[in-house]
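Private note to self, pasted from the team thread so I don't lose it. Backbone tokens:
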């Protein structure tokens, strides 16, 4: 698609069709990532697979990584997409991202990519048992010792804690209090 508006529309349509179960669009998204050297179109294709746990998503993510692994700024997109993807073993995946050889724990963009990704991973961050909140609060406590500015920006994910219903409100407050005491 030519033009920013048309690319945005195409991206949104691919997301809706993929989320709606259209297997053809999943294959097309994989093809776009496989054959298109454009990071913008590849990212749009990945976005369309983002919420759907399927084989095409895993293959497309690997292709995107292999294509852009030597471009740190673009690789942050991959880290963010991986961290924000709903998946069965989400916390294990996050831990592997934080120990990934291409992850830079001192680079604010890399930190925001992964930790910010967790915050937008609704099933993980807002899990009923509070493990998402607890994990983020532990990471922010650690991050505050080496990069307080980035930590202060990321802690905003807890800013609306009192607008959530139970048990989320209570679990978020526990994590806020843990950070307060640290």
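Design output:
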């Amino acid at each position: 698609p030519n033009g920013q508006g048309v690319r945005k529309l195409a991206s949104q349509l691919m997301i809706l069709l993929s989320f709606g179960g259209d297997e053809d669009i999943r294959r097309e998204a994989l093809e776009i990532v496989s054959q298109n050297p454009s990071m913008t179109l590849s990212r749009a294709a990945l976005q369309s697979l983002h919420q759907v746990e399927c084989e095409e998503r895993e293959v497309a993510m690997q292709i995107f990584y292999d294509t852009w692994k030597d471009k740190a700024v673009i690789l942050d997109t991959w880290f963010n997409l991986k961290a924000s993807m709903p998946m069965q073993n989400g916390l294990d995946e996050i831990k592997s991202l934080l120990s990934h050889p291409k992850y830079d724990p001192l680079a604010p963009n890399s930190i925001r990519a992964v930790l910010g990704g967790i915050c937008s991973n609704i099933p993980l961050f807002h899990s009923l048992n509070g493990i998402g909140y607890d994990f983020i609060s532990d990471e922010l406590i650690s991050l505050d010792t080496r990069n307080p500015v980035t930590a202060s920006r990321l802690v905003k994910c807890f800013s609306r804690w009192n607008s959530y219903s139970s048990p989320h409100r209570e679990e978020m407050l526990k994590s806020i209090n843990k950070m307060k005491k640290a």
